[in-house]
Design brief:
Shape: elongated
Radius of gyration: 15 Å
Order of helices and strands: HEEHHH
Number of helices: 4
Length: about 110
C-alpha cells in the first residue's frame, strides 16, 4: 500500500523522474527511492511501537500510533531530502506521507473493524 500510494502521488504530480543528488553526484532511481521510503515508514512505525504484541489488537490505540508514525516518517523523509538535496517539492513529500497514512488507516479499519 505504501509503494502504491507513493508512486501514485509521484506520477500524478509528474515528479517520477530519477532523483539526482548534486551533493554526492549520483542518481537515485524512482524504484530505489520508493523502497528506501518504505523502509523509513516501517522503521518509524517500529519506533513508535506499532509492532508490539499487545498493541496489535487495540484499534484506537493503533490508530494513534499510526499517526505518530506518520509524523516520524515525515520528519525522516524531510531530513533525507535535505541531506541529498533532491528536487522534490514539499507538497509532493507531504502528499506522499498523507496518502500512505490514509491507505494504512483504511486497511486497519477494514481488517480490525475499528
Amino acid at each position: 500500500m505504501f509503494l502504491i500510494a507513493s508512486a501514485t502521488v509521484l506520477n500524478l504530480r509528474h515528479e517520477n523522474h530519477p532523483f539526482y543528488t548534486p551533493r554526492f553526484g549520483f542518481t537515485f532511481d524512482t524504484t530505489v527511492y520508493l523502497i528506501v521510503a518504505t523502509c523509513f515508514w516501517i522503521w518509524s512505525l517500529h519506533q513508535v511501537g506499532v509492532y508490539h504484541r499487545h498493541i496489535m489488537g487495540d484499534g484506537y490505540q493503533l490508530n494513534l500510533l499510526l499517526i505518530k508514525g506518520m509524523a516520524v516518517c515525515w520528519i525522516i523523509q524531510c531530513a533525507f531530502h535535505f541531506f541529498f538535496k533532491f528536487e522534490l517539492t514539499l507538497t509532493s513529500l507531504c502528499l506522499m506521507v498523507v496518502f500512505r497514512q490514509v491507505g494504512v488507516s483504511c486497511l486497519v479499519m477494514y481488517f480490525f473493524r475499528v
